[in-house]
Amino acid sequence: MQHHWKELIAVDRYTVQSRGVLHEVDRKVLTLLYQPLIGCRALALYMTLWGELELLDGQEATHHRLMALMQCGLPDIYSERLKLEGIGLLDTYVHAPEADEPKLFLYELRPPLAPDQFFRDEMLSVFLHRQVGRHLFIQLSNFFARPSIDETKFTQVTRSFSDVFSAVPAEQIVAGLSEEAGPELLEGKDHIRRDEASYVLDDDVFDFELFFAGLSKQLVPRRAVTAKVKEAIKKLAFLYGIPPLEMQKLVLGVIDPAYHIDIDALRRAAREWYELEHGGVEPRLVERVQPLAYRTMENIEPRTKEEQLMKQLETISPRQLLKEISGGAEPSLADLQLIEDIMFQQQLLPGVVNVLIYYVMLRTNMKLSKKYVEKIASHWARKKVKTVKEAMELAKEEAKTYQNWANEKEKGTRTVRKVVRTEIVPDWLNMDYSQPDDDDFDVEQARKELEERLKKYRDES
Prior knowledge:
Elements: H1 4-7, E1 13-18, H2 24-38, H3 40-56, E2 61-62, H4 63-70, H5 74-86, E3 90-95, E4 104-109, H6 115-120, H7 124-132, H8 134-143, H9 161-164, H10 170-179, H11 208-213, H12 227-240, H13 244-254, H14 263-278, H15 305-315, H16 318-325, H17 333-345, H18 350-363, H19 370-382, H20 388-397, H21 399-407, H22 443-460
Parallel strand pairs: 1-4
Antiparallel strand pairs: 1-2, 3-4
Helix pairs in contact: 2-3, 2-7, 3-5, 7-8, 12-14, 13-14, 18-19, 18-20, 18-22
Family: Belongs to the DnaB/DnaD family.
Organism: Geobacillus proteiniphilus
Domain Replicative helicase loading/DNA remodeling protein DnaB N-terminal winged helix: 12-169
């Protein structure tokens, strides 16, 4: 297991640099557009590192300094750092000379997206709308907008480079290169460049192999799917839950005779597809199911209770799972928001989140404890857990550690005792249980109730 203290301890040193120049408008973008997505603590870490950029001026300091500046513990700094990395605001590098020597971390700040890029982004703009609501979203959009001018009323009179500057004869260029090696100022240095924040979606969020397999090369040549188009397809598929075969139809609908795929038209087509499929309801990550590429039980008939559970967790959405656990009642907004937050911030796949929900419900008296859920989710994200099977195996391996996390808030308030098991549990949960928050809570009874509710869902579907 990768505890935060195995990756980072207080005596480890750090220094800060910036990928590009940070401006005052970036502060507004971070505060008003990014903060609703990453939270105030992650923003505070970014702003603190921004201040350290000038204060340290290339010097090194220990993480004790960062803890003192932020008045919080190292686990919090570590978890908030992961959010900044995930959304593309921070690149982290580490140098570890010897195993017993402190590490040196390089925190490289990345400027946020420019407002126009943010609002054009397929995912970030939609999730901001979900977080702040329609009224505030429109207000924010208007705040960062600039007045539109009808350029058709004007005639462009801009001079070209060749109109203003005289050409240099080729022989002078050759002579100049032979006489000088180039400006000494640039030796070993790079120009400062503006490299905005960009978050990364792995290629495995979308099955491009299946997408291309059913696509005629005559209708859509491979060269038409440029890097930008491919990135747009990934984001739209992830956001709207568009399967590869449906995406083929959308691409065929927007490609022009010159084999150019209009990304804006593809965005509109994706939104229209989603509205038709879901009646205009905004996309929610909690409605997703496990991608086919990461289902281990897709073409297998379950032979054990464990395999039945695995197959079900691969084919049900987190929202539906919460609903079935609640006996058919709609999940609370707080629970949905918690699950959606970890899916977005930690980029966990739906099936993995289902295992997390099932596990936490059994460990904490059928409640979703925010801090407990986020802690396990962060661990699974670092472990790059992708399948239901991997999540189950990790839950079993780390059972004692996870139980210690669950018991942390109860230290000093009660004595932890064992629960007497009355029947054999599934292999992946066959672990040494400790009593959850409620002394009268029976893990086995809770597990049986969960199985009954999920069995009812299987029968009805």
